Amino acid sequence: MPQAGRPIGRTAERGPSWRNAADAWFKLLAAIAIGYFILAQAIAVLRDFAGIAVILIGGILLAYFFYPAIAWLNRRLPLWAALSIVYLSAAVVVAAIFYLVVPPAVMQLEGLVHDWPTIERTVRVYAEGPNNPFFTHLPATAQQWLMKMPSQVSADVERNAAAYTTKVVNALEIAVGIGAVAIAIPVVSIYMLAESSTIKRFFVQSFRPRSRGRVVAILYDVDQVIGGFIRGQIIVAVFVGILAIVGLMILHVRYAVIIGAWAGIMDIIPYIGPIAGAIPAVIVALIFNGAGAALGAIVVFTVINQLEAHVLAPRIISTTVKITPLGVIFALLICGKIFGFIGLLVAVPLAGIVRVILTHVLAEEAVTNAQLKPGLTQAPRTQVDPRATES
After folding, report:
1. pLDDT by residue (tens digit) across 188-218?
2. Which of 89, 139, 166, 267 is the most buried (most CB within 10 A)?
3. CA atoms within 13 A of residue 47's CA, in its CB half-sphere
4. Distance CA 328, CA 9 (A)
């Protein structure tokens, strides 16, 4: 019998509710711990098997990039026909790009190797110059690092080149290896797309029937996050690389194709990438074209960065990942510390996956402004709707 004066209804409500919330949090922490362990082990394996890692990651990238077009064609055509049309079209485009871009890129790379001693000598003279106000105000440790940097880069390149050539028998072996990877990546991506439904069905069937609806919903949202990020980053990186090449060509800066390609690749890394892509352009323009061209290169990359930040990225990436800038910064810091350079590349999609899991595991009802009582709001507080879930 219940004791007198004890609120029966409230006790019955709070007990199971508290236990359900605790169970949800424990499950979430366990999922995060297991996910971290699996990811760490997977990255360790990928590092040990670099060739397999390149093929696997390349296959995933291609599969996600081509999926929308293949899914659209698959509504009207068999899957084999959709795959054939998309991949044959992609092969034609890649062949055209190689025909137009590779020859000038190779010529510029040869010129860069020839001019590297000049670049190294000029940077050293500028860094050691007594009239350099920036260099003279730096700490002694930073001055020594800047003075050694050009020769250190040159030594690293020579050492790595020598080590690589000792492992390779001849140029034919290099060509065979590159050709094998270039063939294996599309083949792996084709099989990933062809067997995607089978893999998904096998994974969902491993859960209890009552949990399958939530699992499918989580998989769908995770797929949207990863696919949107990969497609968005590739599209944005291509645009950034093309704009950088065109801008540097207009300024008559040497190695425009190489620097533009470097800028596009570095743009994959949020926040850090745009700066890393702009530095070589400014240095080369300053050495070979003068201060005016260096200032022009800064303007070009600033315009590209603003165009990316306010036009390209919000429309292509932010609508799928939905991660705040603060979340991106912490994701980069944590993943970069744990996994190194690879962590910088996967930080944003991992943060998006965590957001998806939290959204499905935690309470579904959003907190209103009346409950939250926000201290700071985007709009003036007098204009904020208390019933809204965002300020």
Report:
1. 889 988 888 888 888 888 888 888 888 888 8
2. 267
3. 11
4. 44
Lowest-confidence pick of 14-28, 40-54, 337-351: 14-28
* DSSP string across 77-90: S-HHHHHHHHHHHH
Domain that holds residue 353: 212-362
* Residue 99: inside a domain: no
Q: What is the pLDDT of residue 88?
A: 93
Residue 374 φ/ψ region, left for φ over 0, alpha for ψ in the -120 to 50 degree band, beta for the rest: beta
Q: How far apart are CA 12 and CA 67, in angstroms?
A: 49
Handedness of CA 85, 87, 88, 94 (dihedral sign): positive
Within-domain flag for 377: no
Task: Give domain status of residue 370, yes or no.
Answer: no
**Contacts with 234 (C-beta within 8 Å, 6 or more apart), sequence order:** 61, 65
Q: For the chain, what is the domain count?
A: 1
Q: Name the one residue in this structure whose structure tokens are 């055209």.
A: 96
Q: Is the pTM of this model over 0.85?
A: no
Asked if residue 22 belongs to a domain, the reply is: no
Q: Which residues have a Cβ under 8 Å from the Cβ of 193 and sit 6 or more positions away?
A: 63, 66, 67, 70, 79, 83
Any idea how long the chain is?
Answer: 391
